[in-house]
Each structure stands twice: as structure tokens, then as C-alpha cells.
Specification:
It is built from seven helices and 28 strands. It is of the alpha+beta class. It folds into three domains: 106 residues, Immunoglobulins (Immunoglobulin-like, Sandwich), CATH 2.60.40.10; 260 residues, TIM Barrel (Alpha-Beta Barrel), CATH 3.20.20; 108 residues, Immunoglobulins (Immunoglobulin-like, Sandwich). The strands form four sheets. The protein has a 16-stranded mixed beta sheet that branches. α3 links the parallel β15 and β16. α3 crosses α6 and α3 packs across α7. The termini are far apart.
């Protein structure tokens, strides 16, 4: 066995750069760098950080250099650095006595030059130092690391995770990427919200549940976050289901208290997250899309699904500027393909006012990727109105088309993995259209499932909520009833 010094450099600078690395010898054994384990924990919250297992393949995160024991002979090498870099996948041969391995990785797509900065909207359990290493290796500019409260279990007491690292509006560590620790606030029935860019912690982090009272509300969390100029996100945890209605979080969204809708599963034909988002857009909600890995274990790559937010040209990069770009809706989410989209020259988040009937808009969309995809589409109120097939090796597509607009609504671009229109790999936030005299009116079957969630939550508040005072129960019911009236009004 040889102790080999490995260095991976950025081709543009010649300097070492953080990457995700895999080395496999001729016997098929994955060789981990010093300081990484060949076998490591993969359960939720178990020693998260520094390495990852994706499928059957184990990878190490390195800061650009490492040492590893390798036998002489062929070694299979895999190196990656997010969706803008060409992955390295090749075989090298270590001759007897060779103690250095020099590799380079090249950026092939540069969305940052267009003003786009990539971030992970939500990760858990990582330390800030581990998040910085993994974020840099995955090509991220921002990592939102969320502190939270773990409830007690039969075999362990409750705990606060990462709360002492809370940084709010500032990076928790110097250097790139920007690691910011904020909070995830949870009620087991009423809902969960991620509170970003808050200069102070919004307590309590958790209320309700067995042996605890229902003396707070999701709406209170949202209002406190907004008073601190923060951003409220509805995380992609089980929601809008019979088991996990998150009814007050839905009510807060309908009342304009939630700023963005998170999705952390793309390319899954069984995922309902995009369908739920489409339903809310159909009800007239202007709701930017955010992407997150939801990482809480060593089987999820940080940034596996990520948010690209476009900063205004006059602003330099900062966490606050990135957050405000998300609030404005200048975003797309992706697990790889990169998107650009405009309607009459207006980017996602814009509101386009049209006068009279029979209007036509010009749409332009582009997608580029390091890995193949099937098709680029533009959707109007959820219906495909234009499509572009990929060209060459299946990693690029474009659309330029004139689309007739018959009513108010929204337009967006999305990238598909294959012919199944549920297998979405990337999606922009909408450009909203306001047509004079033709407001968006959702159908009854669009609003009915949302009304059902609100009604079931109202019944739970009336019959089961453990409110210490009747005033708390009445406040919760008023929020749900106001949201119900708002939903009926838009229908």
C-alpha cells in the first residue's frame, strides 16, 4: 500500500478546490482518505458530515487535498463539484512508488456570470464547519442550516440542535460558501415553518404534542419573523395530507404570511409537492419556489435540490441580497439542469399587466445541463403551451414562442427527466400575468382539498387542542376562519 497525496485543482485558477471524491482500486474496494471512515453512519442525525453514501457508492468530501492509502495499479476516480462543473470519471494507474495524484476539474457552465447564486434552503444536523466543506464541494454559495428542538423519545431526552451556532442574518463562519444558521419551528399538527434571515431566534422552536400545551401559533411565528425582516418558508415535510395537514401553516400562507414554498424532491413521479404548489398558484397566491436537500443524514448530498436566486446587477453578493431575491421570486429550483426564462423580457417574480382580450406574449426559455434530460417546457396555469426537445447529447434545449393569454395567471419553465411530466428536474418561479377584466378564478375541485384541510384543522382545534386558555383556541380558530374566507373569496 502506498500513502498517496491527492490534489484536485480548479482548472481556471490552478488552486486546490473542495470536491466530492471517490477512489476505487482494482479489487473494487472504495479507499477513503485519512480522517474518513470506510463504513460510516447513515441514519438521521448520526455523525452527519464529511462523507456521503449515494446509492451503493461512498464519497468523501475534501478541501482540495488529502492523503489516502492505495495499492499500485489502476484506480477508478470520480470527482464532482455541483451542476456547473464537468464531473471527472476516469481511471488512473499508480506505478510502484508513485505518491502523488494530481487532478483538475473544470467549470463548464457559469450561471453566476448571469447573476445567479445557488443555495440550499434547508439542512439539518450538520455542524457549520461540515456544512461549509460540503457546500463548497457541491458548488453552493449559500447553505441555510436550521437549528431546531428534538422532542424527547423513550430512549433519550429532548435536545436543541445547532441552537448555539445561531447566526440569523450573518454568516456563522468566515469564508465561502455563506453558512447561516436559522431555525425550524414546529407544531406536530398545525405546521412547520423555516424562519430565515432573522436577527434573533423566534421562540418557542416547538410547541404542542404529548404532555405539552397548544399556547402558540404558526401565524405568531410568521409575524415575528416578518417584524425582524426575515423570510418565512414552508418546508417540504409531509403537508396537506390526512396524517399531516399542517392546516394553520396553510392558513398562514393563504393570508400572505408565508413567503416561499419549498420542494426537496424532484424527478419523483410520486411526489405531490409540485402539484400542491400548482394548486396554490391556481388560487391566486404569488408564491416563489425554493429548493432544498433537507439533508439530515449521510445519504443525502447537500444541494441535491437547490435554489438559484438571481441578484440585481447593482448588488454585490450577500446573504441579505440573496434572501431578498428569493422574496422577489427571482428563483429556479433544480437537481442539475440550469434554467433561464423570460416573458416579454420579464424574469420570474415579475408581474406583467395586459390590457384587453386576445393578448399574446413572447416567451424565451433555455436549459443547460451536465447530465442529459428529455425536454424543456413552458407552462401557463399548469398547462404546457410550448416545448423544446434537447439537442446534441441531450444536455441543452431552447424555446422561443408566442403564447396567447386568455386570463390572468402565471407562466413558468420546467425541465423534464423523461417523457413523464411528473419527473421534473428543474422549475422556475412564475412570471405572473394580470389581464384586465379577466381575474384568475380557481375551479371548485382546486379549492376543495384546501378547504378540507382547513376544516379538519378547525375540528382538531375545537375538540383536541390543549389550549391553556380559551383565548388561545379562539385566536387559532380566527386564523383558520379568515383563511377559509379568503379561499372562498378568490374562488
Amino acid at each position: 500500500m502506498l500513502t498517496v497525496h491527492v490534489r484536485v485543482s480548479d482548472a481556471a485558477t490552478g488552486q486546490p478546490t473542495p470536491v466530492r471524491l471517490r477512489l476505487v482500486d482494482a479489487a473494487g474496494i472504495c479507499r477513503m482518505p485519512f480522517g474518513r471512515l470506510a463504513e460510516f453512519a447513515t441514519g438521521p442525525g448520526e455523525h452527519v458530515g464529511g462523507q456521503v453514501r449515494l446509492g451503493n457508492s461512498a464519497f468523501a468530501y475534501i478541501d482540495g487535498v488529502c492523503e489516502v492509502q492505495l495499492p499500485p495499479g489502476p484506480v477508478h476516480v470520480e470527482v464532482s463539484k455541483g451542476p456547473e462543473y464537468l464531473p471527472v470519471c476516469r481511471e488512473v494507474v499508480l506505478g510502484p512508488g508513485k505518491i502523488a495524484l494530481r487532478l483538475s476539474i473544470e467549470r463548464a457552465l457559469d450561471w453566476r456570470s448571469r447573476g445567479w447564486y445557488a443555495g440550499d434552503a434547508r439542512a439539518h444536523e450538520l455542524s457549520p464547519h461540515a456544512a461549509r466543506l460540503e457546500g463548497a464541494a457541491e458548488g453552493l454559495d449559500v447553505v441555510n442550516l436550521l437549528a431546531g428542538e428534538q422532542p424527547p423519545q423513550a430512549d433519550r431526552p429532548g435536545a436543541f440542535v445547532n441552537l448555539l451556532a445561531f447566526s440569523g442574518t450573518r454568516p456563522a463562519l468566515e469564508g465561502s460558501p455563506c453558512i447561516v444558521v436559522n431555525t425550524c419551528n414546529t407544531h406536530p399538527v398545525l405546521g412547520t415553518v423555516a424562519l430565515l434571515n432573522c436577527h434573533r431566534i423566534v421562540f418557542p422552536l416547538r410547541f404542542g404534542g404529548p404532555d405539552r400545551v397548544d399556547d402558540w401559533s404558526v401565524a405568531d411565528w410568521c409575524d415575528q419573523c416578518h417584524r425582524k425582516k426575515g423570510l418565512v418558508v414552508w418546508p417540504d415535510l409531509p403537508r396537506l395530507t390526512a396524517e399531516h395537514p399542517q392546516g394553520e401553516a396553510l392558513a398562514a400562507l393563504l393570508l400572505g404570511k408565508i413567503d416561499a414554498f419549498e420542494i426537496c424532491r424532484l424527478g419523483d413521479a410520486q411526489s405531490t409537492a409540485l402539484a400542491d404548489w400548482y394548486r396554490l398558484l391556481a388560487c391566486g397566491r404569488r408564491l416563489p419556489l425554493m429548493g432544498a436537500s433537507g439533508k439530515d443524514r449521510n445519504t443525502v448530498a447537500l444541494g441535491a435540490v437547490r435554489t438559484y436566486a438571481r441578484l440585481e446587477p447593482q448588488h454585490g453578493f450577500s446573504y441579505g441580497a440573496w434572501i431578498e431575491s428569493v422574496r422577489a421570486g427571482r428563483t429556479f429550483v433544480t437537481d442539475g439542469p440550469l434554467l433561464a426564462f423570460a416573458v416579454n423580457g420579464h424574469e420570474p417574480g415579475s408581474v406583467l399587466s395586459l390590457a384587453g382580450e386576445g393578448a399574446t406574449v413572447r416567451i424565451q426559455a433555455e436549459s443547460r445541463s451536465m447530465t442529459p434530460f428529455a425536454r424543456l417546457e413552458c407552462v401557463y396555469n399548469g398547462v404546457v403551451v410550448a416545448a423544446g426537445e434537447t439537442v446534441g447529447d441531450g444536455t441543452a434545449a431552447m424555446i422561443e414562442a408566442d403564447v396567447p393569454i386568455s386570463s390572468s395567471g402565471w407562466l413558468a419553465a420546467r425541465c423534464l427527466r423523461d417523457g413523464n411530466d411528473s419527473a421534473v428536474r428543474a422549475h422556475t418561479s412564475p412570471v405572473y400575468v394580470e389581464m384586465e377584466g379577466r381575474p384568475l378564478r380557481p375551479e371548485a375541485d382546486t379549492t376543495a382539498p384546501l378547504l378540507d384541510v382547513l376544516d379538519r384543522t378547525l375540528v382538531w382545534i375545537q375538540r383536541e387542542a390543549s389550549c391553556p386558555k380559551e383565548q388561545h383556541r379562539q385566536q387559532l380558530m380566527q386564523t383558520l376562519q379568515a383563511a377559509r374566507e379568503e379561499l372562498l373569496r378568490c374562488g
